[in-house]
Design goal:
The protein has 126 residues and is an alpha+beta fold. 33% of the residues lie in helices and 33% in strands.
């Protein structure tokens, strides 16, 4: 990826489109938002694949991600809490929990920050 400086922040062109990144939300996505989104969505995507391979049929899935940052250490990300809401019929919470655990071990983004950022995953079935 090649990034070009703007008046505020940077931009790059990717296959999907132009990405603007800046420390100020008025000019682009903030770097921490992109990191949290990458980890959360990667985890969700891997989970979706695992559920499909295990033939666990879900109707829908959404996730939310909250973050804990440490202002005393350059506002670094210390913890990301991912909460999955999974909709389906006759879902077994034990199977879902095992799938989430397996997904966390196979998500490249989560594994890239292992030991640096704590990732906590919870879920609810509806």
């Amino acid at each position: 990826m090649k990034f070009e400086m703007k008046e505020v922040g940077f931009k790059t062109n990717l296959e999907y489109g132009e990405l603007h990144v800046a420390g100020n939300e008025e000019y682009g996505f903030r770097p921490y938002q992109l990191m949290v989104a990458s980890i959360a969505v990667c985890s969700g995507g891997v989970l979706r694949t695992i559920l499909s391979k295990k033939k666990i049929v879900i109707e829908d899935m959404s996730l939310s991600a909250d973050v804990v940052r440490n202002e005393q250490e350059a506002n670094r990300i210390e913890k990301i809490m991912i909460h999955y809401t999974i909709k389906g019929n006759n879902l077994d919470s034990t199977q879902i929990e095992k799938a989430i655990h397996l997904a966390s071990k196979n998500c490249p983004m989560a594994q890239s920050v292992k030991g640096s950022i704590e990732i906590e995953e919870t879920f609810e079935l509806i």
